[in-house]
Amino acid sequence: MYPNLNAELARVGITRLMLAAKLGVTPGTLSLKLNGKSDLSLAECVKIKEIVAPEKTLEYLFASNEKEVE
């Protein structure tokens, strides 16, 4: 759901399992959040940004590849 975040995770060598541990959530919970089946809080987004790519913007990291439905 977040292709830029996935690319940055790969670039810095952080797996989703590692990210889940750093966030203090289970891998399943992180998967639900990153796949859009559960909501990410702003605090979680900021923490992910700090871990993965502090130089990138939240808008970049969490840009969705889905078209908005009106």
Describe this structure in words.
This protein is mainly α and 70 residues long. The protein has one domain (3-58): lambda repressor-like DNA-binding domains (434 Repressor (Amino-terminal Domain)). The chain is built from five helices and no strands. Helix 2 crosses helix 3 (27-34). The protein starts with a helix and ends in a 9-residue tail after the last helix. The model has no long low-confidence stretch (mean pLDDT 92).
Topology summary:
Elements: H1 3-12, H2 16-23, H3 27-34, H4 42-52, H5 58-61
CATH topology: 434 Repressor (Amino-terminal Domain)
Largest sheet entry:
none
The ordered string of helix (H) and strand (E) elements is: HHHHH
Distance between the termini: 19 Å
CATH superfamily: lambda repressor-like DNA-binding domains
Structural class: mainly alpha
Count helical runs. Answer: 5
Poorly predicted runs are none
Mean pLDDT: 92
What is the rounded Rg? Answer: 12 Å
CATH architecture: Orthogonal Bundle
Question: Quick one: how many beta strands?
Answer: 0
Strand content: under 5%
The backbone outline, from C-alpha atoms, is globular
Helix content: 55-70%
CATH top level is Mainly Alpha
Number of spatially distinct domains: 1
